[in-house]
Amino acid sequence: MPKAEQNLPVETVRIDKWLWAARFFKTRSIAKSAIEGGKVHFDGERVKVSKEVRVGMELTIQQGFEKKTVIIKAISNMRGPAPIAQQLYEETEVSLAKRELLASQRKLHNLARPDHRPSKKDRRQISRFKQENDQQFDQHWSYNDD
After folding, report:
1. What is the sign, positive or negative, of the torsion defined by CA atoms of 27, 28, 32, 38?
2. What pLDDT sits at residue 9?
3. Cα–Cα nearest to 68, from 105, 94, 31
4. Where is this region: Disordered (predicted)?
5. What is the CA radius of gyration of the chain?
6. Is 38 left (phi over 0), alpha (psi -120 to 50) or beta?
7. Is residue 105 part of a domain?
8. pLDDT at residue 14 above 80?
9. Is-above-0.85 flag for pTM?
10. What distance in Å separates the CA atoms of residue 67 and residue 47, rounded to the nearest whole number?
């Protein structure tokens, strides 16, 4: 295909090619695998790789923990720089709010867990603490044959 024909505006393009051009996935084969794996939906239904996308369609795309709902604003079959790729779609307000809420919940969950293994000093303190509690328990609770 000559270079001049590639730059012409298009009205429809395959969904795997659009997802790649919009930089949701690094390669078309990864986009294809995600579509086949049920990670991309249109109107609540799974789509096929050959699905043609048009301006105004609403897609739900799941990538790892994140689930995005986007509205297609423009069609492109060429991958460009990230700022231009972000102009191809708009994420819905509900989707943004939900993703921010889930991200903050994951962050809080990670704060509740220690971020390192106990050091040798920490293990000695834990061991000492357990021994003291066992001794106190044994002193207060003893079996009596009265």
Report:
1. positive
2. 64
3. 94
4. 107-146
5. 27
6. left
7. no
8. yes
9. no
10. 16
